[in-house]
Amino acid sequence: MTTAMERKLFRLEGKVQHYAWGGYTYIPALLGIPAGNTPSAEYWMGAHQSAPSQVITPGGTITLDKLIQERPQEVLGEAVWQRFGQLPYLFKILDVKDMLSIQVHPSKTEAEKGFARENEAGIPLNAPDRNYKDANHKPEIMVALSDFWLLHGFLPHDALQQVLKTVPEFATLTSIYEQEGYKGLYKAVMEMPQEQVNTLLRPLAERVLPAYQANQLDKSDPAFWAGRAIANDPEGMNRLDRGIFSIYFFNIMNVQPGEAVFQDAGIPHAYLEGQNVELMANSDNVLRGGLTPKHIDVPELLKHTRFEGVHPVIIQGSAVQDGLEQLYHSPAPDFAASKIELQKGQVYKSTSNAAAILIVMKGTATITGSDTLALHKGQCALVTNGEHYQISTDNEVVIFKAGPGQF
């Protein structure tokens, strides 16, 4: 890579992340690799330092972060490089078999402060009690690939009041909410001694667990997810997870394939089940709030949570390129997600004015520009700044595309 980049179109290979909540078959089937005994939870495509993608160039294979470091303007374009100083997004495919931890992401300003503070304290980046892995915020958009379930933000006021009045175990919490609002209620359950959590939640657990195990509960009912959390927890009834409160306090969303949800800084959320495409700012900062054995820093979590009722919004794609592409709008400048669907004879044309990553989710595609790439299901391409390219197929193809948001 010592001469000017003549090629602007490359094969890219992401990295599988083997988190405990992932499934065993979906991502291996997508990538055409054998399923193993380890869960495959996420497939990362991007330049995050903890798992950068590999770019196949004529001169050999190079990690995407290193390629950007060597050729920032040529890969990203001057405007993106000046604004972000890096590839501003991280692109993922997720297979959620078991519930993820309840989490909140910090704002950009707070992430910078927290990252600097933990660095100064000498906390290693891979320490289990580390909150900030980088100095970036982490707004994110997800597009469902299957019937998908998630928790998203606090219930609106009337709905939360109804929950507190109708779930008998929460009767003692009603006055806290009425006097101190969302923050007082959440602070109370997050700071509650574990013995008191057990005392409050054990009658609920004894009620919902048999119903869950007998398949008597609907997924729209928080009791279903509370039952699953208890059934899957190695601690069982001995140490009930305080994240169960949040299952009842948050919106339960059901999203259909092709529908999207945006989650900004401060919105508490958790993925519950299904597969999705996820696109976020280039960050791995997570402040956890339950449904996890991992580190929970309650003061830091409370500092960054938005204590307000949320009316969930499902985003539908907007048709562009004569209907060949569905664009999912979000307020984040860091990223934009879209879905390209082509039948034989249809041609998608574009000029990359930044750096885009594409993954084939179904069928086969030929991408033609400064090189020609023949891609099948699970394969990816990197299109760098200034590339004029077109996509065609011999049969049909579905591609998800990621790029910066407003460039």
UniProtKB/TrEMBL annotation:
Single GO molecular function: mannose-6-phosphate isomerase activity
Catalytic activity: D-mannose 6-phosphate = D-fructose 6-phosphate
Domain Phosphomannose isomerase type I catalytic positions: 9-156
InterPro entries assigned to the protein according to its UniProt record, in alphabetical order: Man6P_Isoase-1, Mannose-6-P_Isomerase, Pmannose_isomerase-type1_CS, PMI_typeI_C, PMI_typeI_cat, RmlC-like_jellyroll, RmlC_Cupin_sf
Cofactor: Zn(2+)
Transmembrane stretches, start-end: none
Enzyme category, top tier: isomerase
Record-annotated Phosphomannose isomerase type I C-terminal domain positions: 327-370
Pfam families hit by this protein: PMI_typeI_C, PMI_typeI_cat
CDD domains linked to this entry: cupin_PMI_type_I_N
Keywords: Isomerase, Metal-binding, Zinc
EC number: 5.3.1.8
Family recorded in the similarity comment: Belongs to the mannose-6-phosphate isomerase type 1 family.
Listed PANTHER family: MANNOSE-6-PHOSPHATE ISOMERASE (PTHR10309:SF0)
Name this polypeptide is given: mannose-6-phosphate isomerase
